Write the structure tokens for this entry.
Amino acid sequence: MRASLGAAVLAACISAQVGSASGAETQTAAVVHIKDFKYAPTPVEVHVGDTVAFFNDDNEAHTVTSSDKKFDSEGLDSNGTWKYTFVKAGRFAYFCELHPYMKGTIVVLPAGKAP
Ligand SMILES: [Cu+2]
């Protein structure tokens, strides 16, 4: 009885570890930094289902706003992070609503195909 309880606890521990490992499946495929009023790198190539993280390294607020309003980070403060998962293939141009001359592009390739 005591031994089987120990085995059950051990099994629970193992499955908890497996659970936390699979929780990493939403890891980011690409990172874009916003620094000196520029997005870098750009363009960025990812695949359908990939998540892109944007970091604002400036001491100024910025946004990541798609040119056709498909996505919008809204105001990203200094050191702010925003993530977006691309579910459709295509070429997505974006800009900063506060500084419209800031422009970037995300190229989303069909899932499972090497670039
Ligand atoms: Cu900006």
User: Anything to note?
Assistant: Confidence is low (pLDDT under 50) at residues 13-24.
